[in-house]
Amino acid sequence: MNVPKQTPEIFAILSRGNFISSNGSKGKLFDVISYEDNYNILKEFFSHTGYTLEQGHNYFYFSQPEEANLIMEKKLEQFAYYIDVMDFFSSMDTKPTVGTRYRVTQIAEECFSNERLKQKLYALSRREKMVDKVAEIAGDLAQAGFFEQEDEDTYKVMDAIHYLEEVISLITIEDDGEQKNP
Amino acid sequence: MESRRILNRIIFINIANTDYSSVEIAGNTCFVGTNNMGKTTLQRAILFFYSANTRGLGISSSQKTFEDYYFQFPNSYIIYEIATEEGLFHVMVYRNNKLFYRFVESEFVQDHYIVDNEALLPKAVVAKFNEHRIHYSDQIETFERYRNIIYGADPDKKYKKFALMKGNANYHNIPLAITSIFLSSESVIKAEFVKECIANSISSKHTTIELKTIERQLRQFTERYHDIETFFRKENAQRSDLIKDNFSSIQQLKVKQRALASELGGALKYAALQKDTIGLQVAEKKDLLVELESEFREREIAHQEQNKETNQEIGALKSKLKEADKKLKEYEEKGIHDLLREAEEKEKLQVELQARETEYATLTAGFSDVEQQFKTLFNALENERKEFEHVLSSQGLQLDKKYHEDKNALRDAYRKEESELKERHAVDADRIRQLKNQKELDNKDAEFREKEIKRKRYFDQEVTMLKGHLEEISRRKFERTSALAVRNNNIDSLRKEGDHIREKNRITSEQYIERNKQEIAVLEEKIKTIDEKLSVHQHALFGYLQDNYPNWFETIGKVVNEELLFNKELNPKLIKKGIESLYGIQLDLSHVKVYSKTLEEYEQERTGLREQIVALNHAFLEFREEQTREEQSKLASIGKKTAQLKSEITQLEYEAAQDEQKEKQYNLDLHEWQRKGEEQREKDAVQIYTYRDNLDKEINELRHQLSELESILKKGLSDLQESFNEKLAKLNKTFDKEIEKIRDQKEEKLGEFDERKAQLQKEKSAVLKKKGIDDTRIKKLKKDIDEIKTALRNLDKHAELLNDYRKDKRELFDHMDDFRKEKERLDAQIKQSDALFAQERELFSKRKKQMEDETRALAESLKKYVDGLEHFERHFRDRTLYDRLRHIIDPAPAEYAEAGIIGLCSQLLANDTEFHNQFEKFRNNVSEFAGRFRPDNHLNFKINPGAGEGEYERFAAYLQDFYNENKIQISIAEVAKSHGMLIDAISSKMKALTEHKGRINKMINKMEADFSKASFEGSKLIEYIKLKSEDSENKVLRKLQKITEFREQNPFLYGEANLFNTNNKAKSEIDKKSVELLNDLQKTISEEKNEEIRVQDLFELRFRIKEGKNDTGWIEKIDKVGSTGTDMLVKAVIYITLLNVFIKESTEKTARNFSVHCIIDEVGQISAPYLKELINFAEERNICLINGLPNESKLETHYNYTYKFRKDANGFVKVVPLLTMSIEP
After folding, report:
1. Is residue B620 part of a domain?
2. ipTM field
3. Quick check: A97 and B935 CB within 8 A?
4. Which one of B230, B235, B927 has the shortest CB-CB distance to A97?
5. CB B241 within 8 A of CB B920
6. Which helix (H) or strand (E) holds B383?
7. CATH number of A69-170
8. B924 CB near a chain A CB, below 8 Å?
9. pLDDT of B806-840, one tens digit each?
10. Where does CATH 1.10.10 sit in chain A?
């Protein structure tokens, strides 16, 4: 089996729980995985490591079939946070569609003039300055691979955002038949 | 007088902490002095003579600058006195803000500078020179110029005399080496330093490869390459198609939105106008209806009033008739006819009674005189007859009178009735005629209306408008057809033009490449020739002469040709030196040009040729880029025009489709309106026909009524006449009968009278005869009188009844016919009036229904408009969409819209929703597209975060233009050019750099040769100093070499105009490889952090020193060799050797008649014999040592000049010569 020479790099990124998006700085790696039969080769290759290479719309990631409940819970908690952050970005004038570039200062400015956004941001970050708050949450998304930091002030939305969107779309709010707020 | 050129003396005037000192240094010199006494200050000043660089003197940044420390006063001078074969001259250095030099053609004379123990200002010094007619140079303002003069490299010949030596282009190595030795004499000798010196000796600055520049170019290239690569990604092409589609559909939606908005505006205005007009119409109709109704009511009431009177009259007549019938019945029951007959006999009875009574009286009064008696009887009879005749006559007269009276009355009644009848007829006929006239007028009106209906164009406004639209569409269609034809033709011609440009450029390019290749081939051939020469030169006559015959250029060089010079088979041998003859013939070659070239000239020529190739390559790349750019700009303009035309065609086609749709719709509408019009016309016509029919019928009816009336009149008149005639006849008959009766009576009576007279005659005669009396007669008379009296009494008893009867007869019974007729007439009148009114009622109902229908229709359309306006107000006006479209909606002219306001509002809202959906997709696609590129990509696919609609649309328009003008081709050409240029630049720079390799080796060899002489034969201190070079370990250099190799292997295949052409697999592989190489290089440069690649990076230098039993092995730096003294000695040897080699390399090959100083401080550790050996070692190489010693020792005895530094009472440093002599001259 001839795995591509970039396999270690790919593994290093994906095994950290990160994504490889087609529109990111690691776009070349995306191309490598997508090239001819590489996806299947790598899937097979990585299967021995306990990870399953998964493909989304213009992004790749690892999944693990069996995970400890504790880790699952932690992940769920993490996701709850990401959903709140997504909610924050979705409430902005510019929606977080793939390829959108956000400037931290610009977001902070919008928060200054939009009380609702401001409240959401305050609920998400405990940093003192507005700019730091924004940078913190954008940084969190960047760390998870949903955003990518292009320069000190700019973050770009990655293809992997679709993953988050899909997860959010899977959430069903069950009606327990009890009306709390009549 | 010196036989060589040397820095003879250095004089300080007001320099640092010295007021004046003069130090002669034309030999090995030693400065002795404790620390901080000014040794280094002086040594630096000496170094400054050689380096003329204030920064490379080892002054740390915390210390004062050279200028500030040395030249504290305007009259501070450093004077360097130089000894030459011809004599002495000196250089004065002074400061006037910055440092200046002047060369003075005389030895230093203190009086020229110092007068009365006071140093003069430069101006005064110059004045002094003038005064003493001493020549001096212009003020030299730059260090570079000064160095050029001192090292004999200044092109100005007047400064030639001030040169210390005759240096070549590399003379900079000499001051550099002197400086380096001074600065690093105490520290480790690193191979780097030697390498640098070697590099400096063989190359100039511009041979170094500036990695910063290359890295920048590489970064630019890779970024641009990456941009283009991103551009060509499959999903981006798809995305851009999506953007184009989205953009076009949002454009269309916008157009539609504008059209709808304009239509809505028109519809709103139309509705507002219609609302007023129709409102008024509805109100008018309603008023008319009310009026019509009230008019009808009035007429109904009038009609009822009229009928009421007639009915009353009829009632009266009926009651009269009833009463008459009743009374008649009563009278008949009372036997009125008999009574009447009896009453008629009354007078007769009365006359009878009188006659009988008279007869009776006569008969009873006497029987005497019979004659008298009878006479009286006869008289009485005569009287009676006369009386009778008189009664009869009066009866006749009365009868006649009555007859005439009756006749007159009858005639009067006839006349009256006739006139009444005629009058009544006239009234009725008039009324009917009037009605008929009215109907006829109505009919005329209706006829007119019928014509009007036939002529009228229904829904004219709508139809005209639609026809106008259709005409407009057909006009546009015609225009469009021609416009499409024109545009298609234009596109065709543009395509041909594009093909022509491409073809032309292809041919030009091929020609250019061919020419370029040929030129390069010629140049390469030349280079090859030079290379061949250079490769063999050492084994040919050239090499022999270089090594064994200095100045051969001046002699042999002028008479020998190149072929001979590079011929290896000549086996030259020097038989006798100094014989300047050609096979025994002496030639004066002083005016002959030197034809042969030096090695440097060959190298220079080769470099020149290489540069030409590079220039040609560059020119080719430039040409290709320029051509591509030009072609692209032409093609872009064509593409732009074509795209413009195509977009116009698309627009036209879109308009055509829209117009077609509209045309269909308009035709349908037109058809519909026409159908509606015809329907309405038919309806109106039917209505008018019915109306006219009714009118005709009514008119006929009226005519009939009139004729009927006429006939009734006629009949009435004839009846009347008949009745009159009948009555008259009856009257005449009655009269005749009465007359007859009277006549009969008269005759009867007269007969009776005659009979009675005869009777009486007879009786008279009988009486006369008998004279007797007859009582029967009297009795009979008595009875007749009684009967008559009874009858008369009876008559009187019934007189009242008869009177009543007669009155009733006169008042009632005789008028019963009249009453009946009158009643009949009145009945007919009511009937007729009712019929007429029924007609009116019918007409009224029809008109009312028609008006109600019309009002309803109007109200319905009014409702439509009002609802529309209300809908707009309630559901549209407050929306932002209205605000956005207000500028279109508000000024639109009023126009009917088939869809209606509500329809248009909902269409607009649907359009807006669709627009927003499409725009959302569009924006997402744009963000995703732009997001794939770098934020500052050179293709300018940027979208500002938080940009508005406009920016996204601008982006799409730019993208469209980009595709239309195929702008990527320009980028590709630019990238290809920078790619080619980069590789060319790298490879040519590398070639230029590696060309030095041979010289480096040569230099190293020379150094090694020189080192071998430094083994200090006497003491055997140093067994050997060895040097060797190895291949460079520099990673960047290796990458650069790889690129150069690649360039060599693929001279013409790499970096064609299109780096992204995947059609040619082999070429695409090469392109890929070259790009990878460049990427690798960029990566390595950024990893290694080297700023430049210099000659010294081409090789690694290793030393090996054996001193006593110490063998260092091959080392990179000489840190410590033996003890401190030995170490210093070894280093000094190495330095001197290096300096010597550099001097050799940096000066002309003429006889060496100059000396330089090598300043090595702190040499106190070296033992005396070694120092002596060192001094000798230096002296052998025309190098004078200037050393510093902290303390006086015996060492100073080995120097030509020894000075001690002391401070005087004023604190000024004084340099005192200890002894001035050469130990071993």
Report:
1. no
2. 0.85
3. no
4. B927
5. no
6. helix B370-455
7. 1.10.10
8. yes
9. 888 888 888 888 888 888 888 888 888 888 888 88
10. 7-63, 69-170
